[in-house]
Specification:
Bound molecules: hexanoyl-coenzyme A
Radius of gyration: 27 Å
Number of helices: 20
Number of strands: 16
Shape: elongated
Distance between the termini: 65 Å
Helix content: 25-40%
């Protein structure tokens, strides 16, 4: 017996109403402003025809104050699964045209179902945030509803990759769900993220500020370090998410999407020989080294504008996905400070939980000296790097390009911090401290007595480098496993990675370590 026309029509009518969200007019207004709707975002995320929606017919609970007669199609969020480059991905997209995308109990239930589904299926989750926050009419229920999302974000952390797109307002406690995920992409215009807005700040503290200063993509990318990527618009945000996914496994039990060819071509790249100046005081852009090491020069930098004295990001070497961590000598002389330590440590931990080998490129004069750094806790923050590297069990390869001094030598994944292979270039200087500082301490008397102090200092510094800092000294004691010409680096890393693909390292069972936070 065929389905009756009445029943079929009712379904189509209900679907049409729900699919319209906040109505054609509001959607048109968005398009006129060059913005996507919640559905457009999912349509551009997923391959055509692959989206399977969950909860299209969801309805808010009408018992809430003032909402009895209000229609809330989809309850303001679209959720489901689809495919990206042939791989399944779960997603939710808040619909600002429906009660400002505000989060109530059913809205939350839909997001939670999607998160749970992603966890069970072992697939990445992407959330488009565009919301007025907790739905005011639902009172404490909407706060609890946020709590349920946060709880799941935490349970899924380290299980499946979680990516947040901030594509509209993201106010108050609502900002904590994205903050609990692995990566945040934020659109340059039309998106704000803050705990207390300018008005609240002025009322409580008297400080005058602007949304640009505290809540914009630029502020979060360069000052607070809360976000990882700025997107020019919605379409760009989706493109960034696609590119990011191309480096990530679907879950923590899988390898990332390596593109390993059966034959590994190992050829020298002479361009690397010319890139790094021999004089340790002349800076170079370490991103140029990374681009020569990465297959096809394809490097996806993460947190490009924050703590620029360290560079992090994804690429492939010999087809194997790696996370790069590199000192950046062009910024603060490549020293490690609080922000750089936080940035690198979190990245190392991300790579570790998702089975991504880490390649560390070292040219570091030390931790940044300064009253502020000491008072704000460089000890605690710098310790995060030691902790992150020492607890990472993925393959770890370290290339000491030039300076590797003091605690920073250890913080950049030295042999003792668990590097599987440490390679140095002939330009490497590995020592307790830089030559100038060491000479002042070791040869104070000689310097004081010298007629030409500058010439004496240089002579002693050269002597110090030759005596205490050469890579041969470190290699002689097996802290460095090989010294190679820069041109051989790419093939050396590729071969090592290939040989480490089956690396297994176990640690004593425990709930978790107690990383200094
Ligand atoms: C219910 C909301 C809402 C909310 C917006 N709307 N936010 N409804 N609860 N939280 C509704 C509006 O009433 C309006 O409905 C529609 O959404 C569009 O909102 P507008 O104000 O017209 O839009 P716009 O001018 O673009 O301003 C956007 C906005 C503003 C800046 C986000 O709406 C706003 O300030 N909203 C409140 C933000 C907030 O303080 N939220 C609580 C944060 S605290 P109509 O029917 O007129 O179209 C929080 C706690 C979470 O979230 C804690 C977790 C632990």
């Amino acid at each position: 017996m065929a389905i009756s026309k009445t029943l079929a029509d009712e379904l189509e009518k209900r679907r049409a109403v729900a699919l319209e969200g906040g109505g054609v007019k509001k959607a048109e207004d968005r398009h006129a402003k060059g913005r996507m709707t919640a559905r457009d975002r999912l349509a551009s995320l997923f391959s055509e025809g692959t989206f399977q929606e969950f909860g299209l017919h969801a309805q808010h609970k009408s018992r809430h104050f003032g909402m009895e007669k209000k229609s809330i199609p989809t309850d303001g969020v679209i959720t489901g699964t689809g495919f990206v480059d042939g791989r399944p991905v779960a997603a939710f997209s808040q619909d600002f045209t429906v009660v400002g995308g505000s989060l109530g109990e059913i809205h939350s239930k839909k997001i939670c179902h999607t998160l749970d589904y992603a966890g069970k299926a072992g697939i990445p989750i992407i959330g488009f945030n565009d919301s007025g926050g907790a739905r005011i009419q639902e009172g404490v229920g909407s706060l609890a509803a946020y709590g349920q999302v946060f709880y799941r974000n935490v349970q899924l952390s380290g299980v499946v990759p979680q990516i947040s797109v901030i594509a509209g307002p993201c106010a108050g406690g609502a900002a904590y769900s994205p903050a609990l995920t692995d990566f945040i992409i934020m659109t340059r215009e039309n998106a704000q993220m803050f705990i207390c807005g300018p008005e609240v700040i002025r009322a409580v503290t008297g400080q005058v500020t602007t949304m640009d200063e505290i809540g914009s993509a630029q502020a979060h990318a360069s000052v607070s370090g809360n976000i990882h990527f700025i997107a020019e618009d919605d379409a760009h945000a989706v493109a960034i998410a696609h590119r990011l996914l191309s480096f990530l496994p679907s879950n923590n039990m899988m390898d990332p999407p390596h593109r390993v060819e059966p034959d590994l071509s190992v050829v020298d790249d002479p361009r690397l020989d010319d890139l790094v100046p021999e004089d340790p005081k002349i800076p170079f852009d370490s991103r140029e080294v990374i681009k020569l090491l990465a297959d096809d020069g394809d490097f996806m930098e993460v947190m490009e504008l924050f703590a620029q004295n360290i560079v992090i990001g994804f690429g492939r070497i010999g087809g194997i996905v790696v996370g790069f961590v590199a000192n950046q000598p062009t910024v603060k002389a490549g020293t490690l400070d609080i922000d750089a330590s936080d940035k690198a440590a979190r990245f190392v931990r991300f790579c570790n939980v998702f089975n991504i080998p880490i390649v560390t490129l070292v040219d570091v004069p030390g931790f940044l000296p300064g009253v502020n750094e000491e008072r704000r806790g460089i000890i605690r923050h710098g310790a995060k790097m030691l902790f992150a590297y020492a607890s990472a069990t993925v393959p770890k390869i370290t290339v000491i390009m030039r300076k590797a001094y003091g605690g920073a030598y250890l913080a950049m994944c030295s042999e003792d911090m668990g590097a599987d292979r440490v390679i140095a270039w002939p330009t490497a200087e590995i020592a307790v401290m830089g030559a100038d500082g060491a000479v002042n301490i070791l040869y104070r008397k000689e310097l004081a007595e010298a007629d030409d102090k500058a010439a004496k200092a240089k002579e002693l510094a050269d002597e110090y480098r030759g005596q205490f800092a050469t890579p041969y000294l470190a290699a002689g004691e097996l802290f460095v496993h090989d010294i190679i010409q820069p041109r051989q680096t790419r093939s050396a890393i590729a071969l090592t990675l290939r040989g480490l693909m089956s690396k297994r390292e176990t640690r004593p069972p425990k709930k978790h370590g107690n990383i200094p936070l």
